[in-house]
Amino acid sequence: MACTEMYEMENSSDELREEIGNDNKIRLWGKRWFKTVLFTLAMSLLSAVFLLTVIHFATGVQLQQQFDSQGTKLAVLLTQIKCNTKLLSKENISCEDGWELYKKHCYKFVEETETREKAQEKCSEECACLVKIENADENSFIYSAGGLPDTRVIGKLHEVYWTSGIRIKKNNWLWTADGKLVTYDNFNSIEPNNINGIENCISMSNDGTWNDYRCNGTLYYICEKQA
Ligand SMILES: *[C@@H]1O[C@H](CO)[C@@H](O)[C@H](O)[C@H]1NC(C)=O
Ligand SMILES: *[C@@H]1O[C@H](CO)[C@@H](O)[C@H](O)[C@H]1NC(C)=O
Predict the structure, then answer these.
(1) Rounded to the nearest whole angstrom, what is the distance from the C-alpha of residue 103 to the centroid of ligand 1?
(2) Cα 182 to middle of ligand 1, angstroms
(3) What's the pTM value of the predicted model, to 2 decimals?
(4) Among the atoms of ligand 2, which is closest to the Cα of residue 218?
(5) Ligand 1 contacts CB of residue 15 (under 6 A)
(6) For residue 100, what are the β-bridge partners?
(7) Cα–Cα distance between 166 and 172 in angstroms, integer?
(8) Which of 52, 85, 142, 202 could pair with 165 as two cysteines, CB 3.0-4.6 Å apart?
(9) Closest Cα partner for 106 from 75, 129, 136?
């Protein structure tokens, strides 16, 4: 019974359709065509916007990752550029206030205690490295120019300053200032003794001799850079 009714309905709609004129057919077809074009355009636009959004975020994330991984390198590079620019723009050999000139190099004696690592960081911020001591003359200059900071224990041998010297093997030392091996040294006669096997950094004592000292100890430090 239900099927018959449907058949009848279809029949009647067929009859209706036959009654529609040619004009109407064209108009309907035109409308449909227009809708299709509009729909296609809208979809294309949406796809484009979606695609651009995806590309935007993907690129953003990628750049962020690149930046994070290159962050340290970039900071180092920027410091180098800053330092080299300063060096290039310098006409006369001289040192900034608070730095001592000796043979075309500037030295800063910093009377604040830091670990060796932190001390090196502080020197870097001023385009310098921890000091490299190349010969007895330079050692004498440093010893006298460094003065006798108040906290030195008078009358007793005592570490005062960090240098850039570090142990690379049992009795092989290297200046981190330029990566060269230590050829001249002024270790105290009882040094280096490497107490507890952790004394891997070179310090200068209040008599101008050197000591191997634990790198996490806190001492004053000397920064050095080209004048
Ligand atoms: C460099 O030194 C000369 C002579 O001492 C001086 O006349 C000149 O002003 C100095 N230049 C700078 C940039 O300090
Ligand atoms: C320094 O390092 C040694 C060995 O790792 C450790 O025993 C000592 O407590 C450290 N000292 C300081 C002041 O951090």
Answers:
(1) 18
(2) 36
(3) 0.64
(4) 13
(5) no
(6) 107
(7) 9
(8) 202
(9) 129
**Does residue 89 have its Cβ closer than 6 Å to ligand 1?**
no
Closest ligand, as measured to the CA of 201: 2
Tens digits of residue pLDDT in 72-101: 667 667 777 777 776 666 667 899 999 999
φ, ψ (nearest 5 deg) of residue 130: -60, 155
4-45 pLDDT tens trace: 333 344 444 455 455 556 666 667 777 788 888 888 898 989
Cα–Cα distances (Å) from 143 to 53, 86, 152, 203, in that order, read 64, 28, 13, 12
Mind listing the pLDDT tens digit for each residue in 122-163? Answer: 999 999 999 999 999 999 999 999 875 655 555 677 889 999
CA nearest ligand 1 atom 4, residue:
92
Q: Give the integer Cα–Cα distance in Å for 66 and 56.
A: 15
